[in-house]
User: Fold these one by one.
Assistant:
Number 1:
Amino acid sequence: MTPDRVRHMSDAESAQRIEELIELIDALIDVIAAENTALAIGLPASQSRQTEVKTRLAEYFELWVGEVSARRVRLPANNAELQAKFTARIECLRRSMDENLIRLRAAIEASQRRIETVMSAIREQMAGASPYSAAGRIVQRSTSSGTNIRA
């Protein structure tokens, strides 16, 4: 879209572009809500099926933010209903993203705890199986030998 085209965009065209942006925001809200639900039931963050879709939608949203920041898209001043709808959807997106951030942090911390537990178990197993002591000397392990003598 050229700058001349932007300056002459009618309020109806601007409203249509904002409606498209609201649809994108709604899609983002839906994906984030689905991810929040998955994270709430304990799914690790890395296994979230929504990550790819969320990333793609976030890239589109970033492009829209650039368009709005550059004033190539504007919210018609005389359309209070559209302004209220847009503001409400942005607020809903913000709340969803805040919840998502909290849940992602919790999922990452849980994953880190699981990894540390596994690593600790591996270290303990390796230490118990090592023929060397902490000082580097060979450890004499006691062995039991049974006899099975039949007369």
Note: Confidence is low (pLDDT under 50) at residues 1-6.
Number 2:
Amino acid sequence: MGDVLVIFGFLWMVAAALLGLYLGATHAAHLEKLENIAKGGTLFDYHQRLDAYKWRVTVHAHAFLFSIVIVLIGLVIHKTNFSDAATDALGYGLIAAPVLWSVGGLRHSKPLMGAGDLLLLLGIVATLAGLAKII
């Protein structure tokens, strides 16, 4: 499962990087649109546009950071001495975490984002406990 986590983590980094490239490519147009909205004096439209862009930036950052955590856990999971079933459950939960969070973030679904956060947190705590030989 460690190798699977490392590979998945790097693949999710690629997905996050592609989102980042898209954000970078559209940033100039985004700023121009904000400037035009600001000149029109429509504060509500300005904040809607700004918030939508910031949401995508947040999804980009979370996807990338979740990936780093997953790669790190993939590198050390063999040291936990968990059973194969427990290691697989931990791994699948960690794979589901960034997918749920990213889809939730793109759809503005707090329950999905919360589920992704919870899975990542549980994965980190379980790994820590396994490394510290608590469980």
Note: The chain has a mean pLDDT of 93.
Number 3:
Amino acid sequence: MNIVDGLSYRDWQQRNTESFSKLERAKQKELRSKGYRNIGWNHVQKSWSLLQTSFQELSLFDHKLRKGDLSGAIKHSILEAEQAQDIASEALETLDKNYKNVKQLANKALAKYQLL
């Protein structure tokens, strides 16, 4: 029996199946189109590589949820919301500053053309 990375062929298949089943249908379809196939040593190993790449694309929030860390996922989402609020506040300040500059320029232009 072949053992690769401490796992037999059947262990690799089982690990792939468990990981694959946790993905959303759209992601499963995408992986199948990229060559996911859980039969044959070469396919099983390639499929594991595809799954690893897929899981690396997950956000930290999704990763925490999949691990069952609900409080960690909530804390992470709160942190992201606070960061988004800070960015929005900065953008609002920039917009307000730009609005004041444009208004000032418009008033100068109006004053200049009213004299003519």
Note: The chain is about 80% helix and 5% strand.
